[in-house]
Structures are given as structure tokens and as C-alpha cells.
Design goal:
Layout lengths: L3 H18 L1 E3 L3 E3 L2 H6 L4 E5 L10 E2 L18 E3 L4 E3 L6 E3 L22 E6 L8 E7 L4 H17 L5 E7 L2 E5 L10 E5 L6 H7 L6 H5 L8 H6 L7 E2 H14 L17 H15 L5 E7 L22 H5 L6 H17 L2 E8 L6 H10 L4 E4 L5 H10 L11 E10 L3 E7 L3 E2 L19 E7 L5 E7 L12 E11 L5 E13 L5 H5 L3 H15 L5 H19 L1 E3 L2 E6 L7 H10 L10 H11 L4 H8 L2 E6 L2 E5 L12 E5 L3 E6 L1 H8 L9 H19 L6 E6 L6 H4 L13 H9 L13 H12 L3
Parallel strand pairs: 2-23, 4-8, 9-10, 9-14, 14-15, 15-16, 29-30
Antiparallel strand pairs: 1-3, 3-21, 5-6, 6-7, 8-23, 10-11, 10-13, 11-12, 17-20, 17-22, 18-21, 19-20, 22-23, 24-25, 26-27, 26-28, 28-29
């Protein structure tokens, strides 16, 4: 197993590509034919971070030059004929004329997009309809007074974080759904109460809220200039207003808000119409802010119990569904709820709106059913025990953080497109996206993730959001490409800033063909970290329709075939099996992926599993690797902190371990350290070094937590304590209750009293022995 230092060393091989392009590819040299491509076993793909901050990237104040053949963008790899004022597209080989404003271009006077070092550039697009984003707050009032007060305080914090020009709206729900007017034109607050038992479409919302014009008013309505009546009736003058105009009214409404007054019988869950509230919010936004960038922020404290999207019945004796219920198809509400929320995701994505779920409850709230709606709209999920928790408040601040120019870091209304050379086809994409009906000659029949298109909608995303794109090499073996000839891939992402400005980021990637899958350039350009993430996303995506056991067998077979292909060995001699340095750690990633909560559902609720899988499908390569294989750092009085093996033998009485598992950060004190701390040795003047030892890992853990959204849980535990399970669950079980005398108890003494884990899981060494045996078999 590797520590943080060794992982950073591996990362540096491909850091230059990622820093310059925001792209990491599994293979940086591709075999030149379909047959040779199947022999490399592992996927050919790229993990793209379209919003990544690239300091040297130029922002150009004009629109791009686009190829008439493939719609690709002019880039440094295109051939330019300065005499004829034309250029050849490097993607489709189509000849195009340069626009008139480029006629002065020559080798000494190049535009920025033709500079060899500017393979990633951003263009400023014209926007005639500049509008700030909208945030529709959907608040659950079917909760105790204290929890509702914490939720209102969190919304107050949210309003303080938003720029003043952003639009906001408020919908509350319990047994019914209430849409609040924020205009403040009437002396008394006005609101519209809708039934929570039925789904409502955009047209129905428009009618119920009085947003329709009469026949006489419509006859005199001018689409260009509008009318006074239409403006007064519009949702933007009543339900959605800028923060600067409605903050006082909204604060008063929140202050007067009370828990849902609908009667609740003993032994019954409260009425909670979450699905109907989301449908109403979607209808209001589609009517007033379509295709302009908006988010539905759902603050909820429990599962939906009434109306569309019901997760569980009101009878408290009815248990919420578990993974066992889902496996047996015995969760009676699951299929209907999933179908409803999937349709809501389609409605929201059609208008480029995102669904965010802020669930603060000790029980499940139905995130497993909402998962696809959140994922395809690029929404965010924050799980906490209560709205007043510090972790939740920190996550909210991080989510609504601002850039140096005052704009929000989050990006809106994006469209991501992938272009490639004729010898390559796009299989699909996995990430927080929804597929667009864009047809192209580059679409592969072998679909991976969301396929049958080369463009996807990104309703909302952040600078750390990454997308996995999968490719298929289709060139025939009878028509080989020259060894070393370059090929090109291009990624274009059009998005909107919170200021209303529209940008188009264009990244062009150049790599080379090699004649055979056995060429040393194949393994030399293998990025095992990116490949592990690509494999993990495919496996996680397939969990929606396949059994976990079948996926584990698929991972094992793929790993064995990869070991046979790239390993160095003599047939039928497992002891001779070795992997090249560029893929030596890849089996460890697969070992930990098999044990991860993405594929193993034991000890996790369906909501927790959905949250983990959502994060894996959108984070950067390094963050995804932390989820799959955490890092472990050891602190002792014998020297500075140093990375150590992710193994149970790393637990010793006189050290402190820091485990970074992305979702939680664990500070684990050995037996001797905890005894000294409980004896208050750190308070004595002669033990100042011990006090520093205790403080250093906690400070490092807090620093790690500050950089992430959602904020990870910080766990401080002692060896032998109940909270130590967070650490033990991630360690390699090299010492278990089933190991033999020599490999168990004596090995424990040799390592200074290491722990023993009570588990039936195999260790990494046994896993590697089986891999070697099967990989070298004739």
C-alpha cells in the first residue's frame, strides 16, 4: 500500500498535462486499430475538469472560429494557410475560410488561440439577455420548532452569502405546499396554498398562481414591450425577486413561520409533501427563469410521506426501506418514487435547473430515490444530523463561496461537448450531466454511461466537477496508422457565470498513435490513477441495473486480463509475476474499490450509499482516489509526520494516525498516547512536545476539512474505542482472527502490538497471490 508521498510522486508524471489542460487520460498513447485496442483490456478515456482554475489560460474577448464540418474550434494544432486565408481542422480535416477579422493573421501576428502553449482558452460569448441566477428555497416545516429555527437560521446565512442581484423565492411545505409572494406590495403577506397530494405541471402551476393572462389581456399583449398587467402578474414580480429587493420581506416571512399545523396522530409520521413541493418549485422556475440558471434548494428533515414521491407510509410501524428490501424488490414505494423523481430530474434539466438536497435528519429522507434527479441536474447533497451543526454551516459557506471578482464559484447552464478524430468514436459520459439529443458521426454503438450523443447538459457545476468520457477506437487493422502520428481530442464547455456572463472553454488534447498494444509507449503513458477512476465510475454506474456480485466478478476478470497483458512473468510461475512501475499500484486501487461503500452496501443505508456514489461520479481524480483508497499519516515523537501503510499493522500504542477518507477524517490515538492524554500530561510544562504532538494531527485534519464541500466528518478516537471502527474498516486486514500462529500473533508482536481485525475479508497479500496465480496461468 502507498502513502500520500508516493501517490504525489505518481501524480507528477501527469500533473503537467492536468495543470495545462484540465484533462487526465487512462492511456496517453493509443493503439492504432480496433483489434489492438481490445487487447489493452482497460478503458480508453479521459477525466475532464471543465471548470478547473488554470492560471495561464487566456480569456479572449471575442467568439471562437468554428469548423463548418464538425463544429470544432480553431486551435494551435490546426494548419493555417496564411496566403489563402484558410485553415484545416485537425479533427475532421475539413478546410475552412478564416473570417474577415483574421485576414491580417501571419506567423508574426497570431491570435491567442493559435499560440502553441494555449491549448486551453476561454472565449467571452455575447449575451443579449443578461440575468442573474435564481435560487428557489424549498423549506420543510413538518419538524419540531427547534429544528425549524435552525433551518431558518441557515437560510438567513444563505441569503447573506448570495450576491444582491441574485433572485430568490420561498416555498414551504408540510401537508400542503405554500408559495409565498415576496413583492411586499400588499399590507399583509400573501401566499398560495396548494394540495400536497398531487403532482402539478408547469401549466397547472401557472393557472393556480394566477400567472395566466385573460383573453382580453392577451389580445393586447406585445411580446417585445410587454404590458403593465403582464408584468404585475409575472412570477418575477411576485415570487422571484433579487435579494436586494426582497430580503426584508423574506426575513419577516421566515421569522413568522411556524411548524406545520396539520394534526398529527400518535404513532404516525408527519405529513410531508416533498415531491409536490419540488414539482411546484420546478413549475415556477420554468415559467419565470427557464434556461437562465437556477437551483432548487430543498431543506428537509425527513422522508416524503404523502403525495407523489412518497418514500414511506405515515404509519410509524412501517420501516424505511433498506438495501435488503431493495434487493428483494419488497420496498413498495421505491419504484413509484424513483419514477417520479426521475421525471422531475428531466423537467429540471430541460430548463437547465439543478436540484440540491440539504437533508438534516437522524433517519433517511429518500435520497436513494432522488439520486438520479440530483445527478442529472448537477445538484449538491449535504447530509447532517441537524441544520445547526457546524459541519452543515461550513458546507453551506463553501458551496456559496465567491471568486476574487465577487462572482459565485458555482457555474450555471452549461453544455459540454466532445469532439474527436474520425478514427475514434465517443461511447458515452459519466458525471453530473444529462444527455442532449445531438447526433454525430462520432457516436459509438457500444454505449458506456450516457451515450448516443456527443453533447451533454451541465445544469450546475463547480471548478472541481469532473466528467469521465469514454472512447472506442474504430480504425481497422488492415488500415494501420503511422506509428507516432498525432491524434486530437477536443472538449468544449459553454457555461454561465453568476454575473450573467457567458463563457466557452475549449481544450484541445494531442496524443500519439502507436502501432501495437505491446509497444512500450502504451505502458509508459498509462495513468493508473485516472484509469482506476474510470473503472470505478463504470462499476458504480452499472450498480443501478446489475448485481454487486456480477460487478465484482467483472472487475476481477478485467484485472486478471490486465495483469496477463502488462505483467512480466514466466508462464505457470506465480513467484515471477511483476507489474511495471506505471501500473504497480493499480491492483491496490481495485482491491480497495471492491471493499468500498460504492460496491459494498453493508452497514450503510440506501441514502448514504447514494451520497457516496454521487460524489464519486463528479469529483476530481485525486479526490476520487481518496474515496477509493484513503491516505494514512503517522505522527510520533520520533520525527516529523510521515505517510505509512494503509494496514492494520500501522496501529501502534505510541503513535497517532491521521486517515483521510474524503467523507471523514479520522484522528486515531494509540493506547499509550490516549492514556497520557487522559492523565493530562499535555498540561505539564515539561511535556510541551506532547501537547504539540496532540495538536498537530487535529490541525491538519481541520485544514483538510476546510478545503472540501461537503465538509467531511471529523472523528477523534482512541485505540480500542468504538469510534476506531472508522479507521479499522479502511485498513488492510493483514492480521485477523483467522490468521495462523506465525502470520498472526507472532507478527503482531513483531510490529509492536498491532491490532487484529475480526473480519472474513481477505488481505491485500492474499489478493495479490491469487492475481499472480491466475494471471500467469497457461
Amino acid at each position: 500500500l502507498v502513502g500520500r508521498r508516493r501517490r504525489r510522486k505518481e501524480k507528477m508524471d501527469f500533473a503537467a498535462y492536468e495543470n495545462r489542460e484540465g484533462v487526465r487520460m487512462s492511456f496517453n498513447a493509443w493503439p492504432c486499430s480496433r483489434i489492438e485496442a481490445t487487447r489493452i483490456v482497460l478503458p480508453t478515456g479521459a477525466v475532464v475538469t471543465p471548470g478547473k482554475s488554470i492560471p495561464e489560460m487566456p480569456v479572449l474577448p471575442y467568439e471562437p472560429v468554428v469548423c463548418e464540418g464538425c463544429q470544432g474550434v480553431l486551435n494551435p494544432h490546426c494548419m493555417v494557410d496564411y496566403a489563402r486565408k484558410s485553415w484545416r481542422c485537425c479533427l475532421c480535416e475539413c478546410m475552412n475560410n478564416l473570417p474577415r477579422n483574421y485576414h491580417e493573421v501571419n506567423p508574426q501576428n497570431l491570435p491567442a488561440e493559435l499560440f502553441p502553449t494555449y491549448t486551453t482558452v476561454e472565449y467571452t460569448m455575447t449575451n443579449k439577455n443578461v440575468k442573474a441566477p435564481c435560487f428557489m428555497i424549498v423549506l420543510d416545516t413538518a419538524c419540531p420548532r427547534e429544528e425549524l429555527q435552525d433551518a431558518k437560521d441557515s437560510i438567513g446565512q444563505l441569503l447573506a452569502l448570495l450576491p444582491e442581484e441574485c433572485y430568490v423565492g420561498l416555498i414551504t411545505f408540510g401537508a400542503t405546499v405554500t408559495v409565498h409572494e415576496l413583492s411586499g406590495t400588499s399590507p399583509l403577506p400573501r401566499s398560495y396554498v396548494l394540495r400536497g397530494t398531487k403532482d402539478v405541471t408547469q401549466d397547472k402551476v401557472k393557472k393556480l398562481l394566477g400567472l395566466e393572462l385573460t383573453a382580453q389581456e392577451y389580445a393586447t399583449y406585445d411580446k417585445n414591450t410587454g404590458s403593465q398587467v403582464a408584468n404585475e402578474l409575472s412570477a418575477k414580480s411576485r415570487f422571484l425577486l433579487p435579494v436586494s429587493e426582497c430580503e426584508f420581506v423574506l426575513s419577516n416571512i421566515l421569522e413568522d413561520l411556524q411548524p406545520d399545523c396539520f394534526p398529527r396522530e400518535k404513532g404516525q409520521r408527519p405529513y410531508r409533501a416533498t415531491g409536490a413541493a419540488i414539482a411546484v418549485a420546478s413549475g415556477v422556475l420554468a415559467e419565470a427563469h427557464s434556461a437562465q440558471g437556477a437551483r432548487v434548494l430543498v431543506f428537509t428533515t425527513g422522508p416524503c410521506t404523502v403525495g407523489p414521491g412518497t418514500i414511506v407510509g405515515r404509519d410509524a410501524d412501517e420501516d424505511l426501506r433498506s438495501h435488503r428490501d431493495l434487493d428483494k424488490n419488497s420496498a413498495k414505494h421505491y419504484k413509484d418514487a424513483t419514477k417520479f423523481y426521475n421525471s422531475m430530474g428531466i423537467r429540471l434539466a430541460t430548463s437547465s435547473h439543478a436540484l440540491d438536497v440539504f437533508a438534516c435528519s437522524l433517519d433517511q429522507v429518500g435520497l436513494a430515490e432522488m439520486k438520479l434527479a440530483v445527478d442529472q441536474t448537477g445538484g449538491q447533497v449535504i447530509l447532517a444530523e441537524q441544520f445547526g451543526a457546524e459541519n452543515f454551516r461550513k458546507s453551506l459557506r463553501k458551496m456559496f463561496a465567491r471568486r476574487e471578482d465577487g462572482a459565485l464559484e458555482m457555474l450555471f447552464n452549461g453544455t459540454f461537448s466532445a469532439f474527436c478524430t474520425p478514427h475514434v468514436m465517443v461511447q458515452g459520459c459519466i458525471g453530473p450531466v444529462s444527455a442532449l439529443a445531438v447526433k454525430s458521426k462520432s457516436i459509438s454503438e457500444n454505449e458506456v454511461g450516457l451515450g448516443q450523443t456527443t453533447s451533454w447538459r451541465m445544469c450546475a457545476f463547480t471548478p472541481s466537477t469532473s466528467i469521465a468520457v469514454y472512447y472506442e477506437i474504430i480504425n481497422q487493422h488492415s488500415n494501420p496508422l503511422p506509428h507516432g502520428q498525432p491524434f486530437y481530442l477536443q472538449f468544449c464547455c459553454r457555461y454561465k457565470l453568476s454575473t450573467g456572463e457567458i463563457r466557452l472553454r475549449c481544450t484541445t488534447v494531442a496524443r500519439r498513435w502507436v502501432e501495437s498494444s505491446a509497444s512500450p509507449e502504451i505502458i509508459g503513458g498509462f495513468d493508473q490513477e485516472a484509469c482506476a477512476v474510470l473503472m470505478a465510475r463504470v462499476a458504480t454506474f452499472r450498480t443501478e441495473n446489475e448485481e454487486a456480485f456480477d460487478l465484482l466478478r467483472w472487475l476481477d476478470r478485467t484485472l486478471i486480463r490486465a495483469g496477463t497483458k502488462f505483467g512480466e512473468y514466466r508462464k505457470d510461475e506465480p513467484d515471477t509475476f511483476r507489474l511495471p512501475p506505471n501500473c504497480a499500484i493499480y491492483p491496490q486501487f481495485m482491491f480497495n474499490l471492491r471493499r468500498s461503500p460504492f460496491l459494498q452496501t453493508a452497514n450503510n443505508s440506501p441514502d448514504e450509499t447514494a451520497c457516496y456514489r454521487l460524489a464519486l461520479g463528479r469529483e476530481t481524480v485525486l479526490n476520487c482516489l481518496l474515496m477509493i483508497q484513503p491516505t494514512l499519516t503517522m505522527y510520533s515523537m520520533n520525527g516529523p509526520p510521515q505517510p505509512t501503510m494503509l494496514d492494520v499493522t500501522s496501529i501502534t500504542p505510541d503513535t497517532i494516525l491521521l486517515l483521510d477518507g474524503y467523507f471523514f477524517v479520522v484522528v486515531h490515538s494509540g493506547t499509550t498516547i490516549s492514556q497520557w492524554r487522559k492523565a493530562n500530561y499535555q498540561d505539564l510544562p515539561d511535556y510541551a512536545h506532547f501537547k504539540r504532538l496532540l495538536a498537530e494531527p487535529v490541525a491538519d485534519a481541520q485544514q483538510l476539512a476546510e478545503s472540501r464541500c461537503p465538509t467531511p466528518r471529523l472523528v477523534e478516537c482512541d485505540q480500542g474505542g468504538s469510534q476506531a471502527r472508522f479507521l479499522l474498516a479502511k485498513l488492510n486486514p493483514s492480521n485477523t482472527h483467522q490468521t495462523q500462529h506465525q502470520s498472526g500473533w507472532e507478527q503482531q508482536q513483531n510490529f509492536g502490538g498491532g491490532e487484529i481485525i475480526f473480519t472474513d475479508d481477505i488481505s491485500l497479500s492474499v489478493f495479490m497471490q491469487h492475481l499472480a496465480k491466475l494471471a500467469v496461468a497457461s
